[in-house]
Amino acid sequence: MVMKTKVRGKAFVFGKNIDTDQIYPGRFVEYTDVEDIKKYAMYGADESFVKNFDPGDIIVAGTNFGCGSSREHAAITLKAVGAGAVLAESFGRIFFRNAINLGVPVITCSEITKIIAEGDEVEVDIEAGIIKNLTTGATAAAVPMSPYIMNILQSGGIKPMIKAMQETKKSKNR
Amino acid sequence: MHAIEKLLAEKAGKHQVATGEIVNCDVDIAGINDLYLQTVRSFYEMGGEKVFDADKIVMFFDHYAPCATITQAENHKQFRKFCFEQGIEKLMDIDQGVCHQVLADKGWVHPGEIVVVTDSHTTTHGAFGAFGTGVGATDLATIMITGKLWFMVPEIFRINLVGKLQPGVFAKDIILHIIGDLGADYGVYKAVEFAGPVVNGLSISERMCMCNMSTEMGCKTSYIQPDAVTMEYLHNCVARPYKIYETDTDFQYAAELTYDVSKIRAQVAAPSSVDNVFELDKYAGTPVDEAYLGSCTGGRLQDLAVAAQILQGRHIPKTTRMIVVPASKKVMEDAMELGYIQTLMQAGATITAPGCAACLGVHQGMLAGGEVCISSTNRNFPGRMGHVDGRIFLASPAAVAASALEGKITDPAVYLKTGDCGNGR
């Protein structure tokens, strides 16, 4: 599955330092089935989040979104509920890697919380790095992603890349 | 170049690297913990058949040791099967303890190596001059297949520690003070080096505490230049040759900060973020329901020693429970040998099996709504140790013991002024 280059959805806005325990509480980490994992997205911050969030909707946050633990569940759950993108002023680095690896667009934009409010309709051009608030007309530019990271995202995450690499290796060995 | 850059360059097969460059490095130790069966799933999802080098992979059963639910037990079962099938002999089963302490106890971490574990506190291994960093399950699975992982060469800032530690003040207080000052996101994507005369005087245990907590200001990794203390620790346990990298004298740090530790008093991180730091005095007298001593941050032998010193011949009140979780089997054995476990039990503490326990809110000491906990662990996020309305104060092991004894948040200095408990070695 290749990345969508443009996404559009309703904004769900959070504060700064939203840690992985808020994105996905530790007591649910034992679940390994994505159908279970998707029930608890953002559960530590807002228990009603999953009920209100539609696929394609967009998460907006202040600095250091996803700080804390290395649990990939935080990225898995946001992918599973169909988050169109996660826009934040900055990200915890492990969460950032996890999200990219799973092909979830995580986009850094220093002014994001200034131009987007809860419920606003937002459009994101991921490749161009342009964020538009369709409700207010405001726009902002994202911090450009390194080509290396963009390549992972465009490939739909790291899994298809490594898998292709493995298959090439195997066919050479044959 | 900085020692960290030289290390990354060598592991990437390059002569030189620059800040911001992405490098693909050989990984020396790849650790998986039992929270993430997804690691095994991702391994197979990506076409993995055989791990790149079974000897470089360590499996830790620490977060769920021993299992509290059937689901956890099923996960352990699948991990055991994976280790058996892949020939992974370093399966650290439920008796062993928290991954970072086990790595240190076994002498498996060497200076100049890259240590990657599916645990954010892998920054701990900077205490040995290694490049330690946490990743998620799929990154770790990538290492299991290819033996390598990509890293962006980080900006590096240095924190110099000068002055003299006051009685009752420990590495935990220093690092809480720094995180409070700089904020939880100061170090995001960056590496931190701790240096200065105070650092040289700290034990390995205290260095591990500081490096461990550096992830709480967002740092990708941490570093302490190996010195005589490091050598003494490594002398008896290292298994293979290693290389110590030195930072060039003309290296330009992204920032240099200096803290005079003489001015630091006992600290707490108040609910609900690690950078919400105050002098402990501000909250002194707050009734405590649970005093928690443990984890990869504050469950080492030295931490149990200071708690035993404070609680020797005394008893905690009925209004407070104290939970002690030795960080590893070795810590527990040594603490038994030295009588600390007995002292703590006689003082009314509950001892649990080595592991992560309630630090991540899964088992062995969960908080009820509205309860107050003082903890020697690393995170006080909402819901981290149980109910989302549980209030967690992070502090030094000594402050945890003093607070348990008084049943309320208490500065440990009063119990340590005349004692000989070193806050150095």
UniProtKB/TrEMBL annotation, chain A:
Belongs to the LeuD family. LeuD type 2 subfamily. It comes from Phascolarctobacterium faecium. The keyword Lyase applies. One of its GO terms (molecular function) is 3-isopropylmalate dehydratase activity. Heterodimer of LeuC and LeuD. Pathway: Amino-acid biosynthesis; L-leucine biosynthesis; L-leucine from 3-methyl-2-oxobutanoate: step 2/4. Residues 18-105 form the Aconitase A/isopropylmalate dehydratase small subunit swivel domain. It catalyses: (2R,3S)-3-isopropylmalate = (2S)-2-isopropylmalate. This is 3-isopropylmalate dehydratase small subunit. It is an enzyme of class 4 (lyase). NCBIfam families: LEUD_arch (TIGR02087). CDD domains: IPMI_Swivel. Pfam families: Aconitase_C.
